Amino acid sequence: MAQQGASTRPDALTVLNLLVTEAPVAHIESLLSEAVRQGAREPERAALERAVRIGLDICAQRASRQQREARLSALLSAAQDLLVPTSLDGVLQVATRRARLLLGSDMAYVSFPGPDPGMAHIRASDGHTSTLNVGLRLRGDAGLGHSAVNNLAPAWTPDYLDDDRFRHDEDIDEVVRAETLRSVMAVPLSRGSQPFGALYIADRNVRHYTPEEIATASLLGELVGLAAGQTEVLEESRAALRALEREHQRTTEALRQLAEHRRAHHELLERALAEDELQPLAELIGHHLDGPLRIHAADGSVLATVGHLPDTDAAAAETQAAKQPVHTADGLWAVQATAGGEVLGSVVARPGAAADGHGEELLGMAAQAVAVQLLRTGDPAAVRGRTHDELLEDLLSGTHRPPQQLQERARRLGVDLSLPHLVVVLRPEARAAGRARALVTGLAQRRNGLWAMHNGDVVLLLPGTAPGATARAVLGELAPQLGEPVTVAGAGPVSDAPSVYHCYQEALRCLDAMTALDITGRSASPGELGFLGLLLADTRDVPSFVESVIGPVLDYDKQRFTDLVRTLDAYFETGGSPTRAAQKLHVHPNTVARRLERIGELLGPAWQDPAQALEVQLALRLARVREIITRDGVPL
Question: Is the pTM here over 0.85, yes or no?
Answer without folding.
Answer: no
